[in-house]
Structure formats: structure tokens, C-alpha cells
């Protein structure tokens, strides 16, 4: 090195660490942890109105938790649900808990709309009036003389034709049963009471998520003890399970890799100094990654910390090469060691940053966070080795014989020799391994793979959806019109097209604003339909006399109908009486257009629904599919990025080492990455964008290993350098496997596949790298 001032560099490093410590203290004062699954995903690559519709649609479910409390009968189910509600309310987690149906709210909504009863017709009543008014009368008589007639008879005095009763019943298309003032679903001999909770905020802190998870498990146990059953679902529960799993994995990976690194370093060096310095390199890297990342991102996702905890196995590589370089050399100095390892660890850092730079431009917030976090951690760990170690390793001379060094030397000589003796058969087997595995590899781009949940919660979710079809699907329609009238006509055309699809069981249910609220033109048309049909004086008098009404009541009804001529129920007034879900479906009007959402439930066939996007003003929105397509596109782009990074590295290697040696060095990472992919194929593991992220790391460590073996081959002391290089690479590989390889134990499928990719790739690189420069004669530099 031309400028070697270790004390100055150490002082600068110390100042930098003090700055990071100050930033860390500031970060601890803020809410910095993100746990929600949706935070990993990008905003839709759509127009702003579509992104706004997706956000509004998600608001309907993001904060809700749904419970079904099962028992032998409706009374027991309602009573048990009340007990569950009491336990939930005592937790203080929920802004609202709904079990009983508010009679006051029901009456208020009824009274608000009753004044417009002659302008509000449900579609079935409208169809009956258009085809044959007498049919409506006949249906009323059948209802009144049925077992349910007593319930409707109470409405006759104010609503003799039961027009408003029909309309109000249509507001509840699922026809849910109300028993003991609660929504009750009957399923064979069992009854289920519905309880809905709403959180005050879509972003729960980690301690609140743990409380939610524990509370739900406690209540399920209590319900079983009382002979009942409790099913629960909702995005907050999925998030709680995911956060709990991630927290466990952070502990497992972090503790496991740390203990592994400690054990390996102690067995190798038998001295606390290398061990403490490695811990310092790791700690400084993780501290910098955390504190600096929070200056870039408002929050860090818990999955970023899962990946970040595995950095322990990578950042220690720089220190290991430094330590191992001086083993067995009596006159070794930190300056000599740094001058030797700096090109190798510098090149390794460069390859890492090239890979992370590509991921940093990904539209996935989760990937960007992981890339920035990892890059910052590696840079600061590298600087720690380069700037601080020369001072702290001054006059460091180990006082024992390095058994690990002898073992590494024996392995690096015997392993290539054995391969050389059976090179033809091993080459053929390796080719079969690669070709067979790669042929079985299948890309999977479903973004839902990012989230995994235990069988219990997924089974409960499926059972609740079967019993109570109120959960909205991820797909919906966005309906747009230049003005309220055009919007209404566009939505009505869509509903007319959806009706036969429901009859064909293509979907279970749909809901929309215009299904309940007729626009002013339709209200006027409905009034005229009544005027020319059942409200003709002769027709109405005959009908009401047959039901036993006195003439005064008949005259009053005729006057009420005449007085209602010309009145109109505005959309704003109707929304004031609608439930929260319907209100969220109205996106409003601005200078450009009016927009609303048509929600869907129980979709069984997407193709005919997607085809309806051809209707005027209708946009099909499938957020999950759009994100999965985005996932696929960026997997393809990162594949090209990976190829480009390989080409760039090869160019640098050829420039420094020449064609022959450059190609040999590059063969190690290429074969290691192909082996990792083939392993995924043979094992049937997931292959997604995240596996390419893993391959970038395989590229980094494999180039690092190969470059150091090439440097050893070019050293004046080839045999000694190959021994120390083998030890450094072996320690590096084992610590990397302990770090990233432990991700293979993750319960999240996509993280598990990431760990398998790293384990196969790094293991292959470790086996292939010693072949570089084997039997090569010492070369002068």
C-alpha cells in the first residue's frame, strides 16, 4: 500500500462508529419495525385511480379479524361468543367488536330510507312489476300466508305492498339469520355465532401482534373447555403468525450462526483476539446496516432482519482471510497481511455490491430493503477489517500449532488428486446432475408464496369462508364514468353480466353501490312503474280490500304515494344509511370521473370475469396476479442482471489474469450457481426471484474463493499460501453455511428455498475452488 496509516484509519473508524451509535439511539425512539405482509409488496403498476381502488379495497380487510364461535345450538353459541367478546375487549387491542346487531342502527337506517320507499325497488320486484303486476300481488299473498307471514304482517299497515320490506331485505343478499340478536350460521347440528373485531390501526407493533396471537390461542382453549369451538381468520392474524415465526427464525439463525462462528474460530486460533475481532466486524456491520437503513427507509420489515441476521456468516469472511494469511509465518505483520488480502476481499466486496445494486432498483420494497441492508452491512464490515484490524493485530503471534491448518492443507492436496484420478466418471456424473436437475426446475412467481401460515389458521380460514361467504376475494372491478349518470349505467351493465355468472356458479356473490341505490333517473322510472302498475287506484283498492284494509287506510296510502312524486334519494344520503363495507366501495367523483368498486366473493372461474373488462368503463383488477406478473418480469430481469454481472466480472478477471486464468476462475461461480439450481430441481424446491438473490450471493463468495486460490497459486510460497487460503475458505464456507444455510430451516417456503440455494451453491464453490491452480508452478507477480 502506498499510504499506510493504521492509527489514522482506526481513529476515523471510531468516529464513524460513534456517529452510528448516536443514530441508533435516535432510531430507538421511533416506531421502526414493519410486520405487515403487504409492506413487502410494491404499489400496483397501474394508473393512480387503480392504486387508490386497491388501497380502498384492502382497507376493508386489513384491520378486521373474524371469529365464528360454534356450539350445539344458537343460544349456546351466542352465549359463548359473548364470553369471547369480553376477553377480546379486555385486551384493549380492538377499536370495535361487533356481536349483537344494533337494533337502534337498524331502525335508524330503516327510517332514513322509508320516506323514499316508492323510489326504491329491488331488482326482483322491478322485474315482477315489468312482467306482470299481478305476479307481485300473488307473491305477497304467498308470503303472508306462509309460516313467515306473521313477521311481514306487522309491516302491512305502513307498507301494504311490502315494497320497502322487499327492498330492505335485498340489502342483506346473504340472508343471514339473526338469533339472540347475533348473526348465527347453522351447519348441520352445530350453530356458529359471528364476531367481528376491528383494530385501531393497520400497523400493529410486534408486542401487540404477539398479544393478539396469544389471546386467540387462549380463547380457543377456553372455548374447547366449555364444549365449543372457536375459528378465527383475518390478515392481522396471518401477520401475527408470520411475525412470530420470523422472530423465532431470527433467534435461531442469529444464535446458531454466532455459536458456530465462535466454535470454529476458537478451534482454529485458540486465542480470544481473533474471536473478538470477528465479533466486532459482525457487530459493526449489523449496527451500520440497521441504523443507516433507517435513514433511507421509514421502517424495516421483520423479514429484512431475518435475512440480515444471516449476514453474520458472510461479513466474517473478510476477517478470516486476514487472520489466516499470517498463520505459520514467523515474520508476518498486519501491513504485509493487508497488502496480500486487500485485492481479494476488495474484489469480493465489489461483486457483492454489483449484485445488490441490481436488487436495489427492484420495485419490491422488501427486496430493496434487503439489498440496502446487506450492502451497508458488508461495506462497514469490510471497512472495519481494513481500517481497524491493522492496529488491533499489531504484534499478534499465535502461540500454538495450527492443527486446523494442517488438516486444511491435507484436504486441499488430497481432494483435487482424488478428483483427478476419477475425472471422467465424475465429470459424467456431474453433467447428469446438472442436466437432470435443471430440466426439472420450474419457476414459480405466485406472490402469495411470500407468506406462509400454519395449517391450523389456513384450515380455519377455509372453514369460515365455507360457512360464511362474506370474505372478499382479492379480485374486483373498478367502474368509472365521466359523470354520475354514465358511471351508474356502466355499473348496471356490469351487474347484468355478473348475474348469469353467479347462476352458473362462476362466483358466489357480488356487491355494488348501484345494486342497492338507484340513480335519480331509475328512481323516477321506478315511481312511474308503480304508478302505472300496482298503484293504479282500482288495482290498489282491490288489493288492499282483499287484505281487510279500511277505506281510510287505502286513501292515506294513495295520498302518500301522490305526495312522493318527484322526490329523489341522493347518493350521499343513501351512503349515510349504508353499512361500512358499501361505503368503502364508493370512491367518489372528481373533475375527471366518478368511480366505484364492485366486490366479488367465492370466485371459481376467473376467465369469464376477466372478459367483462371489455365493457365500457370497467377495469378488471387482480392485485395478486398483477404482483405475480411483476414478480415474473423482475425474475427475468434479475436473471439478465445476473448474467450481466457475470460478464462484467469475467471482463475484470480477464483484464487482470488473462484469458486462460480468467476463464478458470469464472468457471467456479458459474458451476456453483448451476449446481444450486440443479439441486432445487432435484429436490422440487421453489424457484423464485429470491433464489436469484441467493445466486448473487453464491456468485460473490465463489468468486472470492476462486480469486484467493488463484492468488495463492501465483504466490512465491505457493504451498504455504494454498494451505492458509484453504483454511480461510473452509472457515468462510462453514460460517456462510451456518449463516445463510440456516435459512433452510425456515417455515416460510420462499425463505427455506433461499437457504437451500445458498447451501448448495456455497458448498459447491468450496469443493470447486481448490481446483484453481492445483499443481501450478509458482509464478512471479
TrEMBL record:
It is a multi-pass membrane protein. One of its GO terms (cellular component) is plasma membrane. InterPro entries: MMPL_dom, Mycobact_MmpL. Gene3D superfamilies: Multidrug efflux transporter AcrB transmembrane domain. Its main location: membrane. It is found in: Cell membrane. Keywords: Cell membrane, Membrane, Transmembrane, Transmembrane helix. It holds the Pfam family MMPL. PANTHER family: MEMBRANE PROTEIN MJ1562-RELATED (PTHR33406), MEMBRANE PROTEIN YDFJ (PTHR33406:SF13). This is Transporter. The lineage of its organism: Bacteria, Pseudomonadati, Pseudomonadota, Gammaproteobacteria, Methylococcales.
